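Quick one: co-fold with guanosine-5'-diphosphate.
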Amino acid sequence: ASLVTVLFHLGEMATATQSLDEDTFETLGAELGYKIQIVSPEDEDKELLEGFGLDLEAELEAETDEELEPRAPIVTVMGHVDHGKTRLLDSIRKADVISGEAGGITQHIGAYQVRHDHDGVTRPITFIDTPGHEAFTAMRARGAQVTDIAILVVAADDGVMPQTVEALNHAQAANVPIVVAINKVDKEGANPDKIRQQLTEYNLVSEDWGGDTMFVNVSALQGMGIDELLDAVLLTADAGLDLRANPNKDARGVAVEAHLDKGRGAVATVLVNSGTLRVGDSIVAGTAYGRVRAMFDEYDNPVEEATPARPVLVIGLTSVPGAGDSFIVAEDDRTARQIAEKREAAERAAQLAKRRKRISLEDFNKA
Ligand code: GDP
Ligand code: MG
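Sure, here it is.
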């Protein structure tokens, strides 16, 4: 019998050149006595790394309580266009209590860390410096979980807009708690309560209205409310997040930004998830590899090591990784190169398969 007939008996109407979804292929395979295995790129990469003796999940699971140390929360700023995300990130940058009079962070490396005085303790907070949920989504698509808390910026003179809703949907889908920054409260006609009201429809209910979301009125333009906003971030982190990591092992993390620099070659800003990254380490980030020649912080100061949630600019990669690519420290240069090369081969194969993604019954018959 032809496959079309088999499918017909299974209750699927199909023509010989039609493409089928994964479920149908599985049913068809089962009917004909084949086991169909659809492998995700993540699973494939996991297997690839296991071939080098690296099982990152098992490694995390094996960590004991005593090995874990507190780390900074990692924050992404999201919201509708022109509601003030870039301005807010600028104001926060200037609020670093350590840099103080120096005028704040001047280097844009894709992420930065500020220190904030909270309840008499100076604590670090890390910000992803590419505002908007595009970056957030792109990173999530690569399986990177780099955000602990989302700041949702809503302009008080404009209210909840389509991208506001998109942003909060993304955060809620990823289970990332939201702090709402009602911005532009300096403007005439600004109505923060209207925003509070609007957001109740999306399950964001402010604490003073009996909910559990922190709302803060700010003016990114005037630098007003920034301390309160940073307090809210830390309170939100302390209320429900277990932000700890083991700093005493080879670093694993994510590249959040990367580009080709005329003088320095491929540069990547990385965020360490666990372990400590050091100058001299052999690393692989996506399909890029190399040895860390030098690292710099957001003040362009050279640093020797980066602990969890500490963003650093890394120099020494042979090529530019993608934003959201994970990175790991490998045993040596050779291992790093081999992992990168295997990934590259896997990527090429996936590209080829994608071009022929729509497998038709004809293909199936030939196989
Ligand atoms: P983004 O598109 O969300 O990054 O928005 P921007 O940060 O670029 O801000 C858009 C515009 O709003 C700019 O002209 C800012 O100067 C202005 N803006 C941002 N924050 C405030 C604020 O707190 N008050 C006022 N009055 N204007 C602001
Ligand atoms: Mg902007």
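If it helps, The first strand starts at residue 69 and ends at 70.
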